[in-house]
Design goal:
about 85% helix
Length: about 180
């Protein structure tokens, strides 16, 4: 029998005893009422305990779910970082693969020559040094050109500033002539 049904029975018993309020309740009815009330209180206690346990279980489940979600988010972020790193490394690999190494023909050696790794590396380093020196020379030439353009710009700026002063002097000198033309005859 569930708690609701017990409550309903207890209410019915109480109503029957209330209708006969003019009469005193028989001791058997009082005992029965007392037993049912005790049983009802015990059942309510069990219900409260079950409710409390289910609330704690729900909280624990929510906590476990939140922790699992955080772990999944952390792993997903780590995966995205790995994808990014993979794309970056693939770009670096393709850049290295497209780099033109020092060709062996330029050194005057046939392509089927079987030199050891040290001499090949030495030849490549010397070639890279020559390329860097060429690039440095180009950089120096561009730097000189830049300095020349800066000096030219400064000279033109100074010329414009002096032209501004000359114009002001010209305007001041032309004022008497302007006044002469403004006179009406």
């Amino acid at each position: 029998m569930d708690a609701r049904q017990k409550c309903m029975d207890l209410v019915d018993l109480a109503e029957r005893s209330a209708t006969s309020a003019s009469q005193t309740l028989p001791s058997e009815t009082k005992v029965q009422l007392s037993q049912q009330l005790r049983q009802l209180n015990a059942d309510l206690g069990d219900l409260r305990e079950s409710s409390r346990e289910s609330i704690f279980e729900v909280r624990a489940t929510k906590q476990n779910t939140a922790e699992a979600r955080q772990e999944i988010d952390r792993l997903h972020l780590q995966l995205q970082n790995l994808y990014y790193e993979e794309r970056h490394l693939q770009g670096e690999i393709s850049a290295c693969e497209s780099y033109e190494y020092f060709p062996l023909r330029e050194a005057g050696k046939p392509e089927d020559s079987h030199d050891d790794e040290k001499s090949l590396m030495f030849a490549r380093i010397n070639h890279e040094l020559a390329e860097r020196e060429t690039l440095e020379q180009q950089r120096q030439e561009l730097l000189k050109r830049k300095q020349g353009l800066i000096a030219d710009n400064k000279k033109r700026k100074d010329d414009l500033a002096s032209l501004d002063k000359d114009l002001e002097t010209f305007i001041d000198a032309a004022k008497p002539i302007q006044k002469l033309f403004e006179k009406q005859y």
